[in-house]
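User: My collaborator sent over this chain with a note saying "see what the structure looks like." That's all I know about it. Can you take a look?
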Amino acid sequence: MRAQFRIPASAARIEFLSSLEFEREKRQDVTGANMSDSVQYFEGVEKLLEIWFTTGDSSNKAADLRKIPRAKLESLLKIVRCEIISFMKNEQVDAYVLSESSMFISKRRFILKTCGTTTPLLCLEPLLLLTEQYAGFTEVEDLFYSRKNYKRPELQVTPHKDFDQEVALLDSLFPDGVAYCMGAVNKDCWYLYTLNPFTRRAPHQPLPPVIEEPDQTLEILMTDLDPEIMSIFSKEESLNATEATKRSGIDKIIPNMIIDDFLFEPCGYSMNGVTKNINTEMSDGCYMTIHITPEPEFSYVSFETNVACSSYREIINKVLDTFLPGKFTVTVFANQASPTKDTAEELQYLSSIGEWSRRDIQHCQFKNYDLIYTFYSKFPS
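Assistant: Without extra context I'll predict from the sequence alone. Here is the result:
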């Protein structure tokens, strides 16, 4: 089953309302921070939107999301309330560092990951228009929207103040969508919205086609970070992003990556990495991305990659050794063609990773993917 596009009549109105909300929220950010915090609060938790597009048939082989003009992408990001800081690409993926996190665009996959009080779901309708107008795609094959629970949800902007609001907006566009919550809803949890968990099939109908394109995603979301390590990601301790990348060891987590990094003023860090050597059989390229909110009052680090390997154990250990979080969640998506599909079984036996003990684990099967969710901490939480 695939979700047909709904041509919006309200894209301009959405952009207008978004700009009004932006000004309102800027005032709210300062007010909320001054009332209860010694420093202005910043929400490091990202909203992650990933969409796979298709033409519905094989007639349009020239369809490509990278054909969307840069100016149109910049206008789209204004609705989200962020902007492009830096850009790089390889043969398969365009990687953008944003003022709030990252965007990756390949032939038929769009990834938008934004933190702070951004509004990524407000760009969905305009995005669907652009993909049809410029990229040649007419259908959504798969969609994933996910995020960890916020630390300060009251500072978010509609429709991101709570998960129910987000689900309502997504349901209005995708009638076959389903929503999930992994983990303890009163503590650390992770929300997910996706399409069509299972395709209903009559006994006489043929089986769906076998997925031949391997795909997988590892995401590690960390809080309560080591203050000494976090100090690296400030202008007081590092001259520039390159120095912060090397001092922290980020450049050694996944070798063979071209790194595009940025150190914010006075603190904060973002990086994208894309593979140097291209395997032309892989149509959507490999990437990694890291985003760091270093302030000790609300420290947060996210790591994400779609690099394919038989086990993510080594990468997980490298990430933990690099940042030393107090607690973290690990999520792994893998389809049946992925060499990483056995990671779920591996994580089921990892009751501890070093000094971190597992507090929660859940395993789900969706239409095209298996998902494993785990939560670890150094102390009861």
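A starting point for your reply to your collaborator: The longest strand covers residues 139-148.
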